[in-house]
Design brief:
Length: 319
């Protein structure tokens, strides 16, 4: 196990290096630059044009891109710094740490809701194959896969307000101040994200359960007169969950993208909202730092999920 973890960590290093190049260059392909943003904001408070060249030099943008990248990656490696915001001068790392709890809570609740919905429905649909409940579960899963979560979020914001004069809370309260109010503020966006993730997970769970239930050892368990509950839980579910665990890892980037949308629709002060604001401002260090953090998080969690295989299936060994 230790040798496997070391090998994976060594493989992660070149992956992260390539990711730093991608996240650094991608934002610079967006039309416009941060100087245009600063000029647009200063026109109301400072008459006359600003010295563009002097501002570029002050922000360190007057050198070639590869030099800018070298400075940025050097700060990361030598000092653990992701740079500072070009507009506010605030440290990117500190901004990420401040907004991270909101995004983590949203993602955790979405995953939990998705699993609570998907696993029981997928297992029951497989056990009662071609029943009315099975057809209903598959139909709901297809609808969930086909419905964009951003559209559903907008509909939840608009139509309840028009029809019943009610809208989801748009001001997040701290968990320490009001735990129930805090959870209520996350419930609807996490339910939307979790339902979308549950659709794919439910279909995978059902498919793998059907495959496992056709195995010889399951038929042997039935022939011994074991109860259905014992056969399903003790013998079938554990083996069927291995590909499901992998699917959950693959859904993480989708949840990250969904968090960006949900945080902006429901006014949640998380990393997704910070990222979108930074993109609008062309704040290169902020966008690059957040994207690199998300990418590192996804890579790390996928490594953790790979290690979970040995827990889910004792036959899996990493030598």
């Amino acid at each position: 196990m230790k040798a496997y973890i070391i090998r994976r960590l060594l493989l992660i290093l070149p992956t992260l290096f390539i990711l730093t190049i991608l996240v650094f260059l991608s934002v610079r392909f967006i039309p416009g630059d941060v100087i245009d943003t600063i000029q647009g904001r200063m026109i109301w408070t400072a008459p006359g044009a600003i010295d563009r060249e002097a501002l570029l030099h002050k922000l360190g943008l007057d050198v070639p891109v590869y030099v800018q990248y070298g400075r940025w990656i050097g700060e990361i490696v030598l000092h653990g710094s992701l740079g500072e915001s070009l507009l506010t001068g605030y440290a990117v790392r500190e901004a990420i740490l401040e907004r991270l709890p909101v995004t983590l809570e949203l993602g955790f609740m979405a995953i939990l809701i998705g699993l609570v919905i998907a696993l029981p429905v997928g297992i029951y649909s497989a056990i009662r194959q071609d029943s009315a409940a099975d057809f209903l579960g598959r139909s709901v899963a297809i609808i969930g896969l086909a419905t964009p979560n951003f559209w559903l979020g907008i509909m939840v914001m608009i139509y309840p307000a028009i029809w019943w004069g009610w809208s989801p809370p748009l001001e997040l309260v701290s968990f320490t101040e009001d735990p129930l109010g805090n959870l209520w503020g996350f419930l609807i966006p996490s339910l939307i994200l979790g339902t979308a993730a549950a659709a794919a997970t439910m279909r995978m769970t059902r498919t793998m359960m059907l495959e496992v239930l056709r195995q010889d050892y399951i038929r042997t368990a039935w022939s011994k007169g074991l109860r259905e509950r014992a056969v399903v839980i003790r013998h079938a579910v554990k083996n069927a969950l291995i590909p499901v665990v992998s699917l959950i890892g693959l859904q993480l980037p989708i949840l990250v993208g969904g968090a960006v949308i949900m945080e902006n629709i429901f006014n949640l002060p998380g990393l997704g909202r910070l990222l979108l604001n930074a993109l609008n401002d062309r704040d290169y260090p902020m966008v690059s730092g957040i994207n690199l953090f998300f990418a590192t998080l996804v890579v790390g969690i996928n490594l953790f999920i790979d290690l979970l295989y040995a827990v889910v299936d004792p036959r899996v060994r990493y030598d």
